[in-house]
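chain below, 241 aa
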Amino acid sequence: MKIALIGYGKMGKAIEQIALQKKYTIAYQVDYQNKSLVTQLTPQTVDIAIEFSQPEAAYGNIYTCLQQGIPVISGTTGWLTHKPAIEKYCQEKHGTFFYAANFSLSVQILFKLNTLLAKYMNRLPDHAVNIEETHHITKKDHPSGTSIQLAEDIIKNLPTKTKWINAATQDADTVGILSQRISESLGTHIINYSSNLESLELKHTAHSRESFAQGVILVAEWIRGKKGVLGMDDFLNFECN
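prediction:
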């Protein structure tokens, strides 16, 4: 497999290490210093583009790859207001686009548990809901894409909650997201339900970028030959009942 890494920061380098261990070829390493290389990618030189860049660059990177017939996997967050346009373009081009806010397989299980818990918490409507997310100080977007998905899944499954805000809250109709940026934290997400009588928490902590990088490479292996707009539910092929 010939891979183009678009975004060659810490995550890109972690993905590279896993790919090389599996004897795959890193055909291109693209970052802000040589970003024009994206326009040179072709299906003859690249099998898959893995895009972990910056929010302001993600849309253009993904669009260009799809335009040139390159399947794209992206984990960049902070650009998702433009995601519907990318999905539409992917369908028009009969291309391949896979997006996930988080490629850790254990986080995907957290998403399912979060949805299930929200359904059960319909029986306890007096509980406030807050998500606490902690990441490294260089992470530009806040809240994280993972915490936004957690909040939106709660809202879909808990009718008393109608919106989220990027702050802690005790409002009955709001999910609070408290964002913290400290040192070299790789990511902690805590979902907390609380009342005057009790508290209930779900928590995930990442200890290594390798957990995310492994997920990306597994998706890259799975996606070859597939078409359309895809995500983690397609890859994992499970549903929360």
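The radius of gyration is 19 Å. The chain has two domains: 2-103+209-236, 105-205.
thats it, cya
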